[in-house]
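Hey all, quick one. A colleague (J.T.) asked me to put the magnesium ion job into the tracker so the inputs and the structure tokens live in one place instead of scattered across chat threads. No bug as far as I know, just bookkeeping. Sequence used:
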Amino acid sequence: MTTDTTTQGTAPDATTPGETILDARGVTMRFGGLTAVRGVDLTVNSGEIVGLIGPNGAGKTTFFNCLTGLYIPTEGEVRYKGKVLPPKSFKVTAAGIARTFQNIRLFANMTVLENVLVGRHTRTKEGLWSALLRGPGFHKAEAASRQRAMELLEFVGLAHKADHLSRNLPYGEQRKLEIARALASDPGLLLLDEPTAGMNPQETRATEELIFAIRDMGIAILVIEHDMRFIMNLCDRVAVLVQGEKLIEGDSATVQRDERVIAAYLGEPFEGAPGEEEAAEVERAEAQAEAQAEAQAEAAEAEAAKTEAAEAPEAEADTTTDAAPGKENDR
Ligand SMILES: Nc1ncnc2c1ncn2[C@@H]1O[C@H](COP(=O)(O)OP(=O)(O)OP(=O)(O)O)[C@@H](O)[C@H]1O
Ligand SMILES: [Mg+2]
């Protein structure tokens, strides 16, 4: 990078079209007995927006954590532009991968601008002594960082709130601020974990436009989202995770019409699906319980009929005795 005041519109870490930016192979993450991610392969090429979808608990965030050095995968390898990533999140950010979080992680008591400046620290060359002595080099670098941070706030539409405390921003704007902070590290790949969660349809549409604009800056994108319309509009390719395994990957149309994907979302098992055996077992147990309940209901009904038959002559006699004129019509 030659300057801190890169004009908005180009990523300093921009890549050549078609180049493989992210190459994850056989990524597995186990927590004790639970395998949250199992042998997942995924690539993202430059200029692409790739979607990662799957039901709750499918392992999407865990996979992101494996890509960004928060978790060290139990097995597998992650390469960024051909180089194996170091197992530390700040080193991954320095290498060129930035992310936002499913549960927003901002510094609540810092201003909007300060939050973006924090995101820039991996790109500031000025060291500790320079910061302490506050020499001319430090002031120049600081001014450049502020300018870049303001450009990014402008880009996401938050420049007018630069001095507000981040905790006072509405939810949708906090998500935008997280994106600005991620962009501040000049990434070549941006990972977004549910960027539209909690947004209204208007904000969601604006976020869609924002992501297209980021892609046009030369930054590849991998995005997790539950909003299917958003994902299908946005993504060049979509991968589906189910119970930690990649079920299918393809363009939006292919993924949308795949009956295994539909089944996974509706919770219906399909042949060869991960967890199929367990689902079949649950189904058998449910069928058995239903049959048992039916048999019990039938037995109770038969019992009731028997009792009724035994009491019937008396009851009939009662009705005849009590019957008043006109009562017949009320029944
Ligand atoms: N640190 C951890 N320790 C133990 N288990 C974990 C840990 N992180 C995630 N898991 C488990 O891994 C599985 C996958 O969780 P993950 O958060 O990756 O799912 P997800 O696809 O992001 O779901 P959602 O759509 O709800 O965000 C879950 O069963 C979860 O409980
Ligand atoms: Mg998640």
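Adding what we noticed when we looked at it: The CA atoms of residues 105 and 234 lie 24 Å apart. The two ends are 90 Å apart (CA to CA).
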